[in-house]
Amino acid sequence: MCMIEEEGYSPENKELYCRNCIIFVRTGKCEFLKYLESQVTADLNRDHLQEILIDECGF
Prior knowledge:
By secondary structure, the protein is an all-alpha fold. 75% of the residues lie in helices and 0% in strands.
């Protein structure tokens, strides 16, 4: 099992665990990591969150 899967996704964990991952180092690609990052992006694109961010910015 991938360590980032056990520890949870974060940019810090990506730096720590993916740097030592043979697949990621050799290919620069990781399907699991791509999936996790797409989930983070999807969460940021939710309407509710965008409304909060817009309100906090004063727009």
